[in-house]
What does this fold into?
Amino acid sequence: MNTLLKIEGLSKAFGGLAALESINLKVVPSEIVGIIGPNGAGKTTLFNCITSLYYPSQGEIHFRGIPIAPRKSEKKETLVRRCALIFFFLALIWVPLFWSAFLPQTYFQFEMLLAGLFLFAIQVFLVRGLRKLEIWAWGLMLVFLINDLIFSLWWLIYPHENLLLTGTEISAGFLAIPWTIATLPFSAYFLWQLFQKPVRQLFGFRVGPDAVCRAGVSRTFQNIRLFFNMSVLDNVKTGFHVRLKAGVLGALLRTRFQRKEETLAEEEALNCLRFVGLEKKAFDMAGALAYGEQRCLEIARALASKPRLILLDEPAAGMNPRESARMTELILKIRLNGIAVLIIEHDMKVMMNLADRIYVLDYGKLISEGTPDEIRSDPKVIEAYLGKA
Amino acid sequence: MIARDSDKLRNVYLISGLMLFVLLLPWIPMGTSSNYVLRIITTAILYMILALGLNIVPGFTGLLDLGYVGFYGIGAYTSGLLTIHYDLSLWVILPLAALNGALWGILLGLPTLRLTGDYFAIVTFGFSELVVLMLRNELWLTRGPMGLPGIAPPSIFGHALVHGWEFYYLILFLLLVVLFAVTRLEGSRLGRAWFAIREDEIAAQCCGINLIRYKVTAFAISASIGAMGGAFFARWFLFIHPDMFKFWESILILCLIVFGGMGSITGTMLGALILIPLSEILRIVLPQELFNARFLIYGLILVLMMRLRPEGLIPFERSRAAKALKKKKKADIARGEGTL
It folds into this structure.
């Protein structure tokens, strides 16, 4: 069977603390997979990595072949470091050029020299950041490269005759032409490289939670995150966001396409609400719902984007036995619709009834996996939960 | 059933009466003070437009924007300069000013909207100060502290507007256009995305909303409405000066929104309609030597407001609830098994 979600060697560290360590996990279509573990085991961190709220320190996550967190490329890393060095040498020549370009015209010669030196200092700092693959360096680099491109083009086009008259200009003239020849292709090449996907990924440009949602993963949260001041129906319609297309113009002109989309969204949202049994409360404020209903609403909102995989973070937390039985029923119903479920739960009764397979996390490590029966009798799991005898 | 019908009828009477009053306002005999009153009302409506524009950023999207007046100034100077140098018609200038405002909104928003909360507010504050500095110092473009006098009034079909009532109808028309745009945006997919960002950024992201994109859109639309207000202001006041676009104006517009109810359209309009003429009313009521204390009264009103009704005159939540209720009356929810 083809896999839906594949996680390989996933690690996430916050400073020195390793929240997750080389996790391997797999979900196949319409399967219910449980994740259990004591508090602080890294279950929610795992969810945040999957939905791209965190960028993993190491490892890969693929969803239906789409890389959510791809492998970092060593080759590109050395390429960027080399380019940064070349940029640094070009910048060394750039300062006198910058200075002399302004010299004959300006009254503020000293200030211009200072400005040139200041810019050079920024560039040195930038190269350092670039070699460490910091994200701010990436953005600043774009600005400087575009600046270099414009500057070198200007040197090519500018009439040089009158510039070569004064003493400082002669050196500038000698520097300018080789600098231009070196900079033009280099800047273009480096710009091109920076916009390539593997290089962007080096700087921790993640896919982003919105893109993950569009790919077909949606989630609920441990502490309920609803849009409390909006109506229940609007909450679910917000979940539909990725399936609608209307933009600013469509909204202003209220085109027929946009109206059709809105009515469709409304019908489907009501459908989702019926699915979780909240249709009677469709026009109430979300903040006015009871706790259990809010949990259901969160699930309805997650279902609205037509996901292939839904991540439920403790859906039955704080519920009484009857409510959690209804939740179990609901989750089984979700699976019947061909949606895979990845679920974190503390309530063992719910988990044993639901899950096809269970992964057990402890202190960021995967200590066991298997069917509920296997997990129940695994001595390592018992030790993690109850401690050593 | 009967009660609801009579309710509806009463609403119809109320709204049509209000509209009639608004339309006939310039013709109500007020003697010599007629022009004065009209001017104040026109100012109030201008501020209604500005408040509606600003409302999109802190009200809908939940970002504190202290630099709104910068866009107002950009619009005013765009309009003034285009009129003086190229003698363009107001109907050409309005969209141009809006585009210019949107451009600066996007330029400011793209790098800074990654900041959160207070940091973003400080950046926008800096932006508005920058605009004033630029207007004051770039003599070749804006004439700096000498201001920009001699802007021609707009003309419609070759007839130059001079009377107060003509400007009154013009701004009323502009208000209707802006109101129309804002209500449509509020009820659309875009508006929902904004509200979602305001309520919970992380949940909004996980619903597939691209934060930066929607924040920048909100910022650009808000900026373009502000610039349009500025464009009208330049053609109406016929003189603009950098000091008119100082930080205080931003705070004033923000006050209108907070007073009326952040995020609710009727609320912000009501806020402007009450607070702007209040200054003139105080001028009449207060003795001459106390007139400069009127800002204290503004402060007092806001403090009282925060104490008694912190969510504003017409709160956002209640207006949303009313809207949902209206929808409920139309929709009938047949029970049945839901499918996905």
